């Protein structure tokens, strides 16, 4: 049975080098690599939003003064969970660390671009990404029930089970937090720019919440633009000492940053949304999960209502 080809997008303004990479890779490995090539930032952003590739190989410079491969890595780390590899001839000591800090899965210098090296970097990046994103064995649930197909976070069933686990594990004297979140201004963005753009907003929203939330907390999508977030209880009152307030503020600040999206026609736009957050305390004596979720939902809806028009820059 033939292997499914790895779909690689090469983003490099050096056409000669891009042709060299395509010739080098295509048909030379046991599991073939299908290479698509674009030379500019805007076209690459559109393809990232379409999310049809397995891995991205991005040139550091891109021959531009206002947008570089680092900008594309930063955007790609929000819009897709696929691995992004920084490709460069820059030997500066800080180049690898800057790329990794912005979301690159690996770093490859052009002068070392041989078949074995590229194949190894590509395969390892895809394997690490699959390992980090799958978590399919948790709760012994099949993948379709465990991960939301759009955002990659837990499904409604999975996050509700995780909430149950946190409640059961909470001991006397401990305090936990359950957050109910939604995307403010999502409906007007969805209606104005289309469902393709709306899906991108949900992906970016989920990724930013995960990046700004406490490390042990798990995010799940209840449906539409509504999410649950919770984690293990702490040994102190995280509401009384301001911890929950700081967490909420960090998530709100992360979501408030501009989001770059593309509509169904491929036209770029920058929009802003916000998040409503409702948080409730749980302890060893807390009631049923559904009761706590309802309380968190009520607290979230006490926030300011959505605008009637999308905000854009």
Write up this protein.
With 313 residues, the protein is an alpha/beta fold. Helices cover 41% and strands 21% of the residues. It folds into two domains: 6-134, Rossmann fold; 138-312, 2-Layer Sandwich (Alpha-Beta Plaits). The chain is built from eleven helices and twelve strands. A five-stranded parallel sheet has the order 2-1-3-4-5, sandwiched between helices. A four-stranded antiparallel sheet has the order 7-8-6-11, sandwiched between helices. It has a three-stranded antiparallel sheet with strand order 9-10-12, with helices on both faces. α3 (69-79) links the parallel β3 and β4. It is elongated and about 65 Å long. The N and C termini lie far apart (50 Å).
Keywords:
single chain, alpha/beta, 313 residues, five-stranded parallel β-sheet, Alpha-Beta Plaits, disordered C terminus, Rossmann fold, elongated, four-stranded antiparallel β-sheet, 2 domains, 11 helices
Summarize the structure.
The protein has helices spanning 15-25, 41-50, 69-79, 95-101, 115-134, 143-146, 156-169, 186-193, 195-212, 243-256, 289-300; strands at residues 6-11, 33-38, 55-59, 84-88, 106-109, 176-184, 218-223, 226-230, 259-262, 268-272, 274-282, 311-312. With 313 residues, it is of the alpha/beta class.
CATH fold-level assignment of the largest domain: Alpha-Beta Plaits
CATH architecture of the largest domain: 2-Layer Sandwich
Q: Segments where pLDDT lies below 50 for 5+ residues?
A: 135-144, 304-312
Determine the fraction of residues in helical runs and give it as a percent range: 40-55%
Q: What count of helical segments does DSSP give?
A: 11
SS-based class: alpha/beta
Mean pLDDT: 81
Name the strands of the widest sheet in spatial order.
2-1-3-4-5
Radius of gyration: 21 Å
N/C terminus separation: 50 Å
Strand content: 15-25%
CATH class value of the largest domain = Alpha Beta
């Amino acid at each position: 049975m033939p292997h499914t080809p790895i779909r690689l997008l090469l983003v490099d303004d050096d056409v000669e080098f891009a042709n060299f990479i395509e010739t080098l890779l295509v048909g030379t490995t046991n599991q073939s690599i299908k290479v698509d090539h674009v030379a500019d930032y805007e076209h690459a952003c559109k393809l990232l939003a379409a999310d049809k590739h397995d891995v991205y190989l991005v040139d550091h410079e891109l021959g531009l003064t206002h947008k570089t491969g680092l900008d594309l890595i930063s955007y790609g780390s929000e819009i897709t969970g696929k691995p992004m590899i920084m490709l460069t001839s820059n030997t500066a000591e800080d180049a690898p660390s800057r790329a990794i800090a912005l979301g690159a899965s690996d770093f490859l210098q052009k002068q070392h671009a041989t078949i074995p090296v590229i194949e190894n970097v590509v395969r390892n990046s895809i394997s690490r990404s699959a390992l980090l994103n799958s978590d399919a064995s948790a709760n012994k649930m099949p993948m379709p029930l465990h991960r939301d197909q759009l955002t990659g976070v837990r499904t409604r069933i999975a996050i509700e089970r995780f909430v149950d686990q946190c409640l059961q594990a909470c001991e006397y004297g401990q305090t936990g937090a359950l957050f109910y979140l939604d995307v403010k201004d999502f409906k007007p963005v969805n209606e104005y720019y289309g469902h393709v753009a709306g899906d991108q907003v949900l992906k970016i929203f989920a990724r930013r919440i995960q990046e700004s939330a406490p490390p042990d907390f798990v995010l799940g999508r209840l449906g539409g633009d509504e999410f649950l977030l919770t984690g293990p209880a702490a040994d102190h009152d995280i509401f009384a000492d301001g911890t929950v307030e700081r967490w909420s503020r960090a998530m709100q600040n992360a979501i408030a940053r501009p989001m770059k999206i593309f509509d169904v026609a491929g036209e770029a736009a920058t929009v802003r949304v916000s998040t409503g957050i409702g948080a409730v305390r749980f302890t060893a004596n807390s009631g049923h999960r559904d009761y706590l979720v309802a309380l968190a939902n009520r607290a979230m809806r006490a926030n300011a209502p959505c605008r009637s028009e999308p905000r854009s820059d």
